[in-house]
Design brief:
alpha/beta, Spore Coat Polysaccharide Biosynthesis Protein SpsA, Chain A, seven-stranded mixed sheet, 6 helices, 26% strand
């Protein structure tokens, strides 16, 4: 059973502390990569996947991000963009929970604004939609093998079994897959959501215990642009004239 998501969210409320070495005045989602703001890549992915309603949460230097989003939404055919401003940072879980009224009743995409995906022939969001099984899943995370995660320096996040169900690395020294920050979530995942700030990890663990947390391997590259070094590596990889989808 596949899905046709019409709603999506871009997480853009972080403080971007490490990126302040690039610019003290530009919030991380607006830091340019190959001449385009980072957030433009996530928005272009959603637009290309046929998503018509997009929520973006904002906090740090919110006015700058919201001004860019207003211009972006004015493009012919662009998705409608809803702003979920956070007076206090709600983290990933609280941020999505606050945005639920705009995210519809079916599965919706959530994307980090500091990850750029280099796809193979089939866009990653289309592959997620095709792999969705609402009878078995509450969350489907896009995973990348560590060797194809440019700019990532950790030990991996998940193991994936033959059916696609996920287990955390835990105390093991390394795990083969990195979570890209790109995912399909169902609103029912938030049935026990608390008030205030909390991490989406709470819901991943709930779904994992219920056997309803799944992962899909990304067939291309993941460019993690969370630091000046990651930005430089992504610039080198993309190179002049190869800067991804229009944004």
């Amino acid at each position: 059973m596949s899905a046709r998501p019409t709603h999506g969210m871009v997480l853009a409320a972080g403080l971007g502390t490490r990126m302040r070495a690039v610019s003290e005045t530009t919030p991380k989602p607006l830091v340019p990569l190959c001449g385009k703001p980072l957030i433009a890549y996530a928005l272009a992915s959603l637009w290309g996947a046929g998503v018509g309603e997009v929520v973006v949460n904002t906090h740090h230097r919110a006015e700058q991000i919201e001004a860019f989003l207003a211009d972006y939404a004015a493009r012919p055919g662009a998705p409608r963009i809803h702003i979920s401003r956070e007076a206090e940072r709600l983290e990933t879980g609280g941020g999505v929970r606050q945005a639920l009224p705009w995210l519809g009743e079916g599965p919706f995409y959530v994307l980090n604004s500091d990850v750029v995906l280099v796809d193979d022939d089939v866009p990653a969001l289309d592959r997620l939609a095709a792999a969705w099984d609402g009878g078995a899943m509450d969350a489907l995370l896009l995973l990348c093998p560590r060797a194809r995660a440019l700019g990532y320096e950790g030990a991996g996040d998940f193991f994936r079994d033959g059916d696609g169900r996920l287990a955390r690395r835990g105390e093991v020294a390394a795990a083969p897959f990195v979570f890209t920050g790109v995912q399909l979530l169902h609103p029912r995942l938030f049935a026990t959501a608390p008030e205030g700030a909390y991490s989406l990890n709470r819901h991943y663990d709930e779904a994992m215990l219920a056997g309803r947390l799944f992962g899909l391997e990304h067939h291309g590259l993941m460019l993690h642009v969370g630091s000046p070094a990651g930005l430089a590596a992504a610039e080198r990889h993309l190179g002049a004239g190869r800067c991804g989808a229009d944004g």
